[in-house]
């Protein structure tokens, strides 16, 4: 080594005895061959020369034999052994402690010997203590420490952490791009040459485009690219044999081992998709959607099913209304041209689309190819038989109610969108809830077959809906529906009626008011305001009652006399609406006159209600009573029949005959339904 060199000089070394000794570039002196060395000092010269300035130096190297002990032994000795007879011993790991028996000492001579081969990789240092005692076992000197360092020998090869190393590098990477790091270890002393490793690449497969595509840092094991030209489409993987050698890589004395580095060249988008044809063809029936009309195929040299390979299609021209879309098939990478909006053959018979394909990710920098590929798609539209359609739909007409049967209302016709097909359309009726209409099957004229009534339950919000069907004679035949909405204008065809139809009042005028209104199924102006009045006949009506108009919709009925006997009275009321001409009606108000308490509440309602029961109510009550009696009689007959069966053991009598006989007996006992009806009629005559 040079003590005053800054390390920048390039020095070349030579030995004066090149047959025996050589000097490396780093100044290491080593023996070239094996030869015996005499005990006398050997001497030779080493020359150094600066390659640039040609300046020269020299140094003398002296070699001497290293003193060794016979049989790998060490001898210890005490100064007291001249006067005393001493005994020597050693203690510690390797002597009397595990691992025991490696070192032994001659108790007389004090010679320490090793009994087994030492392995520095297992135990690099032993720490023993030597003792000296007299023949009586008395310590004559303090114990001394003996430290034994095991000198390393190059007896271990380098070992890679993995036999196969995997790394990746993008294609097109520039020289100097880091790829991966391989690591080997050596069990020998890492601070000595025996454990200092150096790496190198032994081989590369394949050797294209260059046999030296990669290099390795001989100290760290880092692998980097050293040449350009990595192309995944040509070479997808490289296999390197890596060698690690100790002794700082000395090929003569170092031990070596190898491992495999597998470098995969990853894909980058350096190839755009390219259409396999300049023009693609397809066809689609009109009015069909979600139909694939053409498959666009492309080729891409990049790795399949990666963003650099996946194609994205778009329509760049020929579809201003957006009737087509292109989806990518994830498996084949084809472009599926699909109809997304209906196409009318009568409007467009053919489309010429301009389409473009590009990758999901942009092309890598420096690629000279255009980023996309273009092609044309010719789509032919096929004419099909379409549904006739009514226009407008629904069709609304306004018409007065009350039209007589046979009146022509309107013509409701449909249009055939198939202008290039000679077809006829016929009409039928689909829905006519009130059965008021008919349609001519040829010309679509709609005529009434019954009177139109706005007050019909089939009319909602003054509108009556009827549905008709138009069918053509195409192949296959098609049809369409249309709705006719008739807005019915009201006429004054309904007379008003009193509401409510029943009321209660007391026998005396105070309190003695009944508020009434009118019900008219017509609407303005054929309904209210209403006029209320009492008829002149019979004379008892105006004698007993008076009516007062409160407003256009309400009136008040009062007793005119001071007292009216309790009972049911039918009071006729004349109600006239505001129609033009107005319509009048005599409506009957059933008034229950009853005795009242001080609060004006009826106290004899039961008697009045019983006396005023109508025929229908009486019949219903009688029917309930008869059914109840029949059930009782059937139970009695059933009980008697059981008794007869037990006593006489006679044959069973038909239950129907038995029940019928009992019902006949019941009819003979009571007054029957006719008597009850006559009593009710008599009560009604008394009321009138």
Automatic annotation (TrEMBL):
Localization per record: Cell junction, Adherens junction; Cell junction, Desmosome; Cell membrane, Sarcolemma; Cell membrane
Species assigned in the record: Galemys pyrenaicus (Iberian desman)
GO biological process: adherens junction organization; calcium-dependent cell-cell adhesion via plasma membrane cell adhesion molecules; cell migration; cell morphogenesis; cell-cell adhesion mediated by cadherin; cell-cell junction assembly; homophilic cell adhesion via plasma membrane adhesion molecules; synapse assembly
GO cellular component terms attached to this protein's record: adherens junction; apical part of cell; catenin complex; cell surface; cytoplasm; desmosome; intercalated disc; lamellipodium
Transmembrane segments: 617-639
Residues annotated as domain Cadherin: 78-160, 161-275, 276-390, 391-498, 497-603
InterPro entries named among the record's database cross-references: Cadherin, Cadherin-like_dom, Cadherin-like_sf, Cadherin_CS, Cadherin_pro_dom
GO MF terms, alphabetically ordered: beta-catenin binding; cadherin binding; calcium ion binding
CDD domains cross-referenced by the UniProt entry: Cadherin_repeat (cd11304)
Pfam families: Cadherin, Cadherin_pro
Alphabetized Gene3D superfamilies for the sequence: Cadherins
Membrane topology: Single-pass type I membrane protein
Protein name, UniProt field: Cadherin-2
Keywords assigned by UniProt, alphabetized: Calcium, Cell adhesion, Cell junction, Cell membrane, Cleavage on pair of basic residues, Glycoprotein, Membrane, Metal-binding, Repeat, Signal, Transmembrane, Transmembrane helix
Domain of life: Eukaryota
Main location: other
Record flagged with keyword Cell membrane: yes
Organism phylogeny: Eukaryota, Metazoa, Chordata, Craniata, Vertebrata
